[in-house]
Amino acid sequence: MYNFLEHLSQRAFTQLCGHLELTVFEDKEVIFTRFSEGRGMYMPGPGHYQEEVDLDCINLTLTDFEFWAEISLFTSFQHTCTMVSVQFNDTFLLPATALAKAIQEFAECCGYVYQYARSLQAKLNTEEFVAEEVLPSSIRTACCEATDAYQLKNLTKERLLQFFYLPKPYPSGADTKDLIRKVLSGDVTSGEEILQELE
């Protein structure tokens, strides 16, 4: 979503970046806990992390930034695991209300994000995916491609109109005056004759 948002409006994307909150987590510091309410989308930077669910621990090594709990930007979401920083790590947080604030002046971005969120919610409701920390990339891509903005920016030959017809132009002012004169003088009397004149 965010790559296309930058493509759609660099100004809106810049404002969005201005709303990011940087937090530096120390060794073994908890980023968020399981079942806690999502505060927004986390973007952990490259580093080592630990995902804990019950007694299971999974060590994660990130080489680039990732999006965690993106769904909490659009709906109420409880974290499905506890995330711990194994070393000093930089993590950005985009609060849930910040996305709306950042794009509120950009109508094309508002429409795009709204349609993205609606598509995401529809897929969640039909159980195409389970709400977890990281959304499947196929779901994110499908939601992005379902928006009008994406489709307009990525027109293919199949989507282009081949033929279209323009309706006849309305009669000019002179034509209308001429028809009124004919009706008043009695030259054109029936509704059928009037329709023929209008055609």
TrEMBL record:
Domain of life: Eukaryota
Record's signal peptide: none
Originating organism: Symbiodinium pilosum
Name of this chain's protein: Cnga3 protein
Coiled-coil region(s): none
